[in-house]
Each structure stands twice: as C-alpha cells, then as structure tokens.
Write a structure and sequence with these properties.
The chain is an alpha+beta fold. Helices cover 23% and strands 38% of the residues. It is built from three helices and ten strands; from the N terminus they run βαβββαβαβββββ. Strands 1-4-3-2 form a four-stranded mixed β-sheet. A four-stranded mixed β-sheet has the order 5-8-7-6, with helices on one face. A two-stranded antiparallel sheet has the order 9-10. The chain is globular and about 45 Å long.
C-alpha cells in the first residue's frame, strides 16, 4: 500500500447545516455537491474533504458514530501568520462553530487555537513558523 491519503470523510448529522457552515459561513467552494448525500471540497493539491450524510455513510460503510463524545481527531488548517489564527477562529464562530481554545502562543513556538464545526469535529488553526507549505503541495520542516 502506498503512503498516501487523498480523501478525508466526516459523517455529519445534518448535511444542510454543514453546507451552511462550510460554504456560506467559511466561504469554501464545493468541488462536488450532491444534495442530501455528500459534499466534496478540494482542500489542497490532491486532497478532498468529504462531508457525508451520516445515515447514508452508515448504510454503505457501517455505523461509525460512537455517542456524543468528540472524535479523537483534529483537522489542521495552517495559516501564514499568528494574527490569522484569531481571524479564522472569529470567522468560524460567526459561521456557527464553537471556539474550544482561543489563539494562544504554544510551547512549540507558534500560535494555535481550536474550534468545532456543527458536528463537533475539531479543527486546529495554527501558525507554525517551523513548517512551510508550498503551493506545489510540498511541506518543509525547519
């Protein structure tokens, strides 16, 4: 098996609410939108984020929800400056998300904060001066 990951799929309770949050609130543009079933966003070169109606997901993949606890996963959104962390958190709040941790300077030398979308999926918004994300999809450390 190749070391690749090209699609991240989140099972959501209310696809319309997720659409309002990501499309109307955060301003993301769907790559594919099948009403009542699934929305795909191209989030970087070769990577898709899929929001799939939880019931449709369970019908195909089996039940994946395990109660109301937050899933032990974070989705990362790197930004180019420390000030941008707070701005993204503000936009997520205005869109209906919940800030879990405000923008704070971290021991690892950067700034990060966390919010959840309407389904409780946790996003980290981070400026890490030690990691560079190139437009061509490359990642450089240090």
């Amino acid at each position: 098996m190749e070391q690749t990951l090209n699609v991240i799929t989140l099972g959501v309770r209310d696809l319309d609410a997720s659409r309002r949050f990501y499309v109307d609130g955060l301003g993301w543009k769907p790559h594919l939108d099948v009403p009542g079933e699934v929305i795909f966003f191209q989030v970087s070169h070769g990577t898709l984020l899929s929001l799939w109606d939880r019931e449709a997901m369970a019908a195909e993949a089996g039940e994946v929800h395990r109660g109301d606890d937050a899933a032990p996963i974070t989705l990362g959104h790197p930004v180019s400056s420390a000030d941008e962390v707070a701005a993204v958190l503000d936009r997520a709040t205005a869109a209906g998300g919940t800030v879990i941790r405000p923008a704070e300077r971290r021991d690892w030398g950067g700034v990060s904060g966390y919010f959840t979308d309407p389904d409780g999926f946790r996003w980290e918004v981070a400026h890490n001066p030690g990691i560079t994300f190139g437009a061509d999809g490359t990642i450089a450390f240090g």
